[in-house]
Specification:
The protein has 347 residues and is an alpha+beta fold. The protein contains 11 helices and 10 strands. The strands form 2 sheets. Strands 1-5-6-10-9-8-7 form a 7-stranded mixed beta sheet, sandwiched between helices. Strands 2-4-3 form a 3-stranded antiparallel beta sheet.
Length: 347
């Protein structure tokens, strides 16, 4: 029994054979045109199936099988050709971007650390040398760790949407926020350790605020010391050591009474600009500090009748601005090479 002959399929096969002669020489655009012509929804091969209803019942299976075989042949050839084009492009790119690591780099422009990163590394090294352990905490944390565990009242304005970035949650789930300060590391760290300990944390924080000296995302560095006899004099000595390592031994500090929910007593720390070598007069506030509130110790699982401690926190961006005389905090994140090239050589 002879197989049925389908002239329209033979014509489509012949058209493909003719078009595919130069398949290996085509680029991606040419291959895309061929794919659209032959196997797209409106292509020549899918269009053949419209003839199926006109055929005798007994010829339809053979016709459908022939169309499918032709389609698989065309798609297989196109897939292979496209893969070859991609491989050739990748090979060419790798050849162009090859870096000879044996070349002498003495004449190349040296890179350097970002001034913010350089100060961060310097301060962390300093505190580690003073016996501090580097601790970490989530940047996305629950409202309890960010506020309640730190003795922040439920009606405190810092919890408002104007100051805090809240994250969408399902009904019944605990509120989650982008941390507004590195202080959220305190209850986490206290629950993970037994005192005595000295801890330092540095990382990004987030607030709804933006002007020349405030950014919605900036960096803080925060330290905590908990022991049986820790006192405010220890706190002042620690901060004098930090500031004078940054601005020189002549830098003068002053401590002003202040209020923070998580410390009692609390203070703001200012540096005398002229004594620190800064090109301005007067005092500049650089951070807050105080003795850890008993409620914070309790929320961290520490008995305040047995232990006490101090905490301090500073904006790393502002300290970087002070150190280098930057006028706008957004210069630190703008990626402006005119600004960054001034700090080549920072280690």
């Amino acid at each position: 029994m002879s197989l049925p002959v389908f002239p329209e399929i033979d014509a489509a096969r012949a058209a493909w054979d003719l078009s595919s002669i130069s398949l290996a020489e085509m680029d991606e655009a040419g291959l895309a045109q061929l794919r659209a012509r032959f196997v797209s929804k409106k292509g020549e091969i899918p269009a053949l199936m419209r003839n199926l209803g006109k055929l005798p019942q007994e010829d339809r299976p053979a016709y459908g099988a022939a169309v499918q075989t032709l389609r698989e042949t065309v798609e297989g050839s196109l897939d292979a050709a496209e893969a070859a084009v991609r491989d050739a492009a990748l090979t060419l790119r790798l050849e162009r971007e090859t870096l000879d690591v044996s070349l002498d780099g003495a004449d190349s422009a040296a890179g350097s650390l970002h001034p913010l990163q350089a100060l961060r590394d310097e301060l962390l090294d300093l505190f580690v040398s003073m016996g501090f352990e580097i601790a970490d905490a989530p940047e996305l944390d629950t409202e309890w760790f960010n506020f309640s565990a730190l003795n922040v009242p439920d009606d405190h304005p810092a919890r408002d949407m104007q100051d805090t970035f809240f994250v969408e949650r399902k009904e019944g789930e605990e509120p989650v926020v982008l941390r507004t300060h590195t202080s959220n590391f305190q209850p986490h760290a206290m629950r993970d350790r037994k005192p005595p300990f000295r801890l330092i944390n540095c990382g990004p924080v987030f607030r709804c605020d933006a002007d020349a000296t405030h950014a919605p995302m900036f960096y803080q560095i925060e330290g905590v010391v908990v022991d049986r006899t820790t006192n405010f004099a220890n706190l002042k000595a620690t901060l004098y050591t930090m500031v004078r390592s940054m601005f020189g031994e002549k830098a003068q500090l002053r401590f002003r009474p202040s209020f923070f929910p998580f410390t009692e007593p609390s203070a703001e720390m200012d540096v005398d600009c002229r004594s620190a070598g800064l090109d301005r007069d007067g005092w500049m506030e650089i951070g807050g500090c105080g003795m850890i509130h008993p409620n914070v110790l309790r929320n961290g699982g520490i008995d305040p009748d047995q232990f006490q401690g101090f905490a301090f926190g500073f904006g790393l961006d502002r300290m970087t601005m002070l150190r280098h005389g930057a006028k706008d905090i957004f210069l630190l994140s703008a990626g402006d090479m005119r600004f960054l090239k001034q700090f080549r050589g920072l280690a």
